[in-house]
Amino acid sequence: MSFVHQISSGSEGDPQYVMVDDKKKRRMISNRESARRSRMKKQQHLDDLLNQVVQLQKKNNEIANRVNATTQVYNNVESENKILRAQMMELTDRLQSLNSVLRIVEEVSGFAMDIPEIPDPLLKPWQLPCPSQPIMASADMFQC
């Protein structure tokens, strides 16, 4: 019989050592179980965070797409407005010219003519009641 076997076989019979060994085993099992639960909890938290990252990235992409679409619509409307303003200026110039001709005809003929005044906003389109403000936004401002 070896020395190690003699010591362990001698302590096996002693109730004090058996109780200490049982306590150690129970504590060791309890610690392992606690560590396992802690790892599972940590993994679940990590999984939750990763899911949240995916959801936030998806939401960010949706917002960026909406900003791009809105910016495109704004650019189209702004282009149309520029064309309409140019047409309005051309028509205002024509109206002023026609009114000038009517005034000359009125003076020459002696007949009073009803020449309507050109409304002020038509003469000064850049002073509209609600001036347009450019929208300075793009989807790039949401990218990290």
From TrEMBL:
Keyword Transmembrane belongs to the record: no
GO function term, MF aspect, one: transcription cis-regulatory region binding
Places the protein is found: Nucleus
Region of interest (Disordered), residue spans: 23-43
Protein's UniProt keywords contain DNA-binding: yes
Pfam (any one): bZIP_1
Source domain of life: Eukaryota
Domain BZIP: residue ranges: 21-84
PANTHER family linked to this entry: BZIP TRANSCRIPTION FACTOR 44 (PTHR45764), BZIP TRANSCRIPTION FACTOR 53 (PTHR45764:SF34)
Name of the protein in its database record: Basic-leucine zipper domain
Organism, as annotated: Macleaya cordata (Five-seeded plume-poppy)
